[in-house]
Amino acid sequence: MFKKIALFLATITLLGCFAGCSKPASTASYDQLYTFESYKESIVQMKSFNQFGKVSLNKDVDFVKQGEGSCKLQPLGEPETTKNPTVVFSTISLPDSEREFNYMDFSKYEKVSAWVYNDEDHEVNMGISLLTSAVSYDRLTGDYGSTTITDNFILKPKQWNKVVYQINHAYLELFVDIHYIYGVCFSFENAGTRYLSETDTIYVDDLKLEKLSKPYQTTQAHIFECEGSTEDKIILADFEQYAQMYYAHCAVYRWQERRPDIDVYNPMLGDYGTVLRLTTRYCPYNVNRSNAIRISGEIFRGLDLAAMADSTDYVYYIKFDVYNESNADISVSGNFIHKSSEKTCKTWTSVTVSPKTWGTYSYQLSKAKTSTTDKLGNVTTYRYADDPGDISIGWGQYEEGPRRVFYVDNIRLERVPVVAQ
Amino acid sequence: MANIKTVFKKILILTMAVLICCSSLACNSGGPSGSPKASREDVKIWSIGTNEKVVLEGTEEFKDLYSAAPNIDLVVGKNEYESATVVISAPKTKIQSYDVELSDLKSAANDTYSKDNVEVYSLLYYISGASGDYYSKEGKYPDAILPFEKAVEYKENYVDKDTNQSVYFEFYIPENQPAGTFTGNFKITCDDNEFLVPVTLRVYDFGITDESHLRSSYNLAWALPDGERDTSLEMRRKYIDYLTEHRVSSLYIFADTPSTDEGWAEWLELAAELCEDPKFTDLSFNVPDTKYDSIIINGYEYNFTSSLPNYEWLADKFYIIGKRCLEDEEGKLDIFKRLLFKGFDEPELWGQSWDWIRGYHYNYIRAKELAAEMLLPFRTIDNAEHFDTLMESLDGIPVVITAQTRYPTANTIDKSRIDGIDFCPYFSRLNSKADRDLFKSMSDHGLWAYGCNTPDSPYPNYHIPDALMSARVFGWMAFEYGLVGDLYWAVDAWGNEPDYDYYAGKKPSDPGEGILLYPGQPYGIDGPVGSIRLNAIRDGREEYEILYLIEQTYKAKNADYSFVPMVETLSDYLYAEMQCSYDFDAFDKSRTALYQLMELASSNAGIRIVDVEESGGLYKMTIYANEGYTPKNAGVALSKVRDVIGADGVNGSEYLLSIQLGNGVTGIDLSCDVDGYTVSFDWYLGNAAVGYNAESFANSFSSGNAGRVFEATLVDANTVVSDRPADEKWLHLDYVSCLPGYNRDVVVRHEAFDDIGVTTKKIVFNVYNANDFNTMFNVRFRPKQKGVGDQTLKSFTLKPGMNSIVVDNVFALSWQKRKGVEFMYFTTGIVENKETQFDRLNNIYLVDFSIYEV
Q: Closest Cα partner for B167 from B182, B184, B145?
């Protein structure tokens, strides 16, 4: 009997020993992003923008949903602007953090959920979006690019609100790599004050990333299918989906008065279907800035441009179609921006399109595989094909007359047989 | 079988015990619980001076210091702060926890100094490179002052083995605190061991005012929102108020410049509120630039390709500020008086042209003039006095140019000499009276001093590895040299990365530069955490207020009286020009002297030392005393020189105190019987000089390279000047030739130079110029420490006849860094061109050389 008791105790002890020491494999239906138990575990990971207001650790149990702490938000916003105060809950632990985690791979998650307490007597509007670019940390203007479209939530007063942000993978993967989501953004209306005493107080707790039953499978990249044919192409963006509009953003975002209007539009022009419409603005000649928008380099995701080498049989091109809706010639250029260096490739081309006609912009891919160095050997032009970033599409300046409109469609890679030229 | 069973049982029990031990050990990620506590012998409690720091790691080097009993002994006035540091060292065993318990202090008159006036902090340590500052050892230096209760709450009140933890006591002396000497004990408990630290607080019977008379502009414009995770004005205000309590002002009271009427209305209310705080001195806002084609300034037309401040915009802001001031019901609000603009930031560093600088500053003048015109219709009979004061303040708004790396030239002086420029050079660029006078002459609203990354030690700086004294003595320098304020580039320049470890310092290349405060939120504090450097700055500025108070007390008697001559004597051991001496004992003595001198002046005897002259060790001091009181030196009544009618209604007399140092006389021992008690002031002036005649230098000279040919020949002095004694020899210095472009200098080696160092008060060269023209004569030395640059001792112009070249405060030249004098150079200028290549310079004679010991 004693032997049995002793063996039982030993077994329990051993189990206890290992159970207490090792992390069990995660079988939970969610990953806990933050529970807000300590400053060093949570608040230190957070970054705020647009003069957010205050982010702090709350220990008042009246405003704690889980554990012993929650995150207290008092959003302000940059006074005298309309920018939305935004706070980012990082999905990856920062260097030297006491708590190490990496929840950047959003192909695993179905939704983001959190409990949010609105300590006001009125409803509060809150937006949730995803931070898609770490380099954009310092330029999170709410204008474009670095965050996804915001989903809005209404927080009911004096109660905990469960907010659930549904992740739209199909939309996301159009322009970002869903395996690298840098954070979850909570944004609020600009309070128009510098004083915390005049703004809302919100508490956030139990921020979770709820898992899919199986990870989302990203769409396979296109492949050339019509070998030897002039139709041997990969369509990268045909703007037939509304969401593809978000491939485009404004390179001249700082100059509000020069930003074109961007939308997707069906001009009923033959087989072209929906196109990207750019309604440009006047710009003085003496302003030494080019007008341009950018098409996200994400359109090349999954493609190895560097491996697409011209041969005696084929020549590779990046092309897109341009329709000039205005009444004057329009010159459209394409430029290519090396992703990690943000440097523009030195070689570029343009196409001039007459009014009410189509033209085709064409850029031989081999040009994107040249690099240059200075006397000291420093790279001055990077090989775009190695690390393709945005495509900058520019147009000629004009000083007077109505706003000029042109369309962009069928951004594509073409493998053109040599004999066909 | 029974035996087998027993053995099995024992094995099983043993196995279980081992497993249980394993389980508890394996799961414990921190240190083992129940670690041994430090014994009394393992704990060392000791104290350091107010200007000193002790690194965290390594106890062995402090063995001699920590064997002495700790104590806190402070001299203070009312309405001021003063601090003391006690160090807990754990040479052999970790101290698991320490605690501090304060007690009230009592005086002989049974008055109480309440313990509630003392704040206790645990110092946090910042990793620092030494970077040429006072402390040569790399390591972690104390800086942030964490309230002790937070150290306990966050379980940081322990001392690791072989480390030193500083505990910092900050005393505030209330205005209503009775004067007297207060004593008592503070208790420090380390693990189970109690230690008493004796405390003595000498409170003088006067206090400084809240008003800050030394202006300041400390930039709160960097990473506050990142560190605090708080962009609100409430948090910003907490920082501003914290700085203000330390007698420095945040220049930008808003993080941004308002762009709407509502925004400006808010700004004005905050500005008006801050102006009510007498400790707050300066505020500003950014002025947008715009393009101007050309401007005519004093008859010159300047064309600009770069933008200039929009003077019309600025005039509009001056207008609304003026209007707001005039709305003040009490007729006192004067925001203009607190305004300061950084006119052009570091132009020389950025290679900006002086034309642009002139245009830039001229637009501030235009804005002032335009605003004055716009405001004029609002002058009424009722507000005339207030209005006129405002206009005077508007005109007096400083617009400073920071930095200045080069000497001002004819270009910067002559053509740029327009109203509205005020200079704000680096501390190090004010290192001679000539430079200070030059910059002052070009500054319309007073001369400021500037710190931004440079300078380093021994100049005033706020680097963590520097001793606190270099920051603190700026208050003294500012008073003695007539500087109106200082401008420091940042107080919150932490990294703005989300994970920046604010307290540890990730970027030790410029340790602590731009960081005088730390964010409080990591420790649950709603506001900033201060630093011992900011406290040192405050303490120096409080000393400025004491100096100012004494000056006012002197002037109340007679407008011609000044405390400055005495300050020049008191500061002898604190700094040379703008270079800190790092003589901590001297600092304590000089500081105590301030209190004694204020006590003398404020006593019924009204004693003031209003003039000090010195020549060859002969001191002549002019001392004032009220009628009916006779000052004495060493118990001997001083002789009256003249009677004085007091401007304060109390008449008195001036007395002469004459002292020749030497023969055992080393200072003054001033006293006066005042209505039943005696006030006194002792001051050490130094020893007599040790002289070396010219003959001893006969073989000391060598010509050096660069075509330098030099000859030194002993001659009879009376062959040069007929009335010199027959046996006196002078050394004829004959600069025969030197290549163009090189200094005409000569190397001098002499055994007497071995005695020059921290014990040298001054050195004097007597040189005779037998020419009928002036010629320059520079003396510099090569330090014994390799790699430390030459140090100029004196740049002098030899006039025809006998010249006495006096180098004061030699001991203050950072000898811990320079180690001594290897040799000296005597230089008579650069040979500029071929024509003068062989232009022989002779007829210069070295007469003698003297070293005055401290």
A: B145
